């Protein structure tokens, strides 16, 4: 039973604030009736304040009432709730272990278990807060690798659609990289490597989405900057072929035919079987002819014969480009103007 201040009579838990048995309505209405000379607005404000006080008095059961227990009893009850799927109750009891027995060895484990319980019911902010405190207070704990990994997962689970803000995705990338750097040979490090690839692909998809918008609205310089980020920063993702094709489109629209020719040549050299090269081929036919007529004697350095495909830049002198662009791409369907978005990531392990 909880007591309803200021009357001091028992108020059954779960009962509404303004019910006859709770008798709060009579008290609050009597309070307002004693203020007939006050303005209506002042009386309403006092009524609201009194209602909030009453509500707070009847909602004491949201917090776990203090009851002195042994650490075995509290921790066992928390584990039982966790097994029953009552994660919110389990988190409260794990926190109670730390509150009643802060210097116990089990209090350290309870901090981590409380963070896990909050993570499991999608309360990621509460989980990250507890994990940050655990990492700061117990940097040498044997479970510190799991704490870093669970923190990374808490951000990873919040990865949103590419059309939304990607702040949580960037935090997930940083946290996953932290796990890989600190614990490279652990199972957490190996799993983080898989998730970091999907995270980088998601960030690249965001840049592509913005770049397509700029391209469609004819803000070509802004589009070029976005596509360059994909090519230079996220070069191992699946969006690089499209980014190179979009660069070819943007440079052609700006009249920078030599740059368009370079982007298409890099696309054809690194991804010769890509569908995006088929679209770039038709664009570079026009760009190549205009480049040859504008600069018949280019001094650009051709590609070294033994250069690595991923790091080398294809030769761009007119003779080599004419020979390259005269070869049509392999047969196959022409891709649509918009590439499909990557599959959703962030499923719980």
How is this structure best described in words?
- The chain has 14 helices and two strands.
- By secondary structure, it is mainly alpha-helical.
- Among the domains are: 2-62, no CATH class; 71-200, Tetratricopeptide repeat domain (Serine Threonine Protein Phosphatase 5, Tetratricopeptide repeat), CATH 1.25.40.10.
- A two-stranded antiparallel ribbon has the order 1-2.
- The radius of gyration is 32 Å and the shape is elongated.
- The relative contact order is 0.05.
Offer a few descriptive terms.
single chain, 349 residues, mainly alpha, Serine Threonine Protein Phosphatase 5, Tetratricopeptide repeat, two-stranded antiparallel ribbon, 14 helices, 2 strands, 2% strand, disordered N terminus, disordered C terminus
Layout of helices and strands:
Layout: E1 2-4, E2 9-11, H1 24-33, H2 40-58, H3 71-83, H4 87-100, H5 105-120, H6 124-137, H7 144-156, H8 167-182, H9 187-216, H10 220-233, H11 240-254, H12 257-270, H13 275-294, H14 318-325
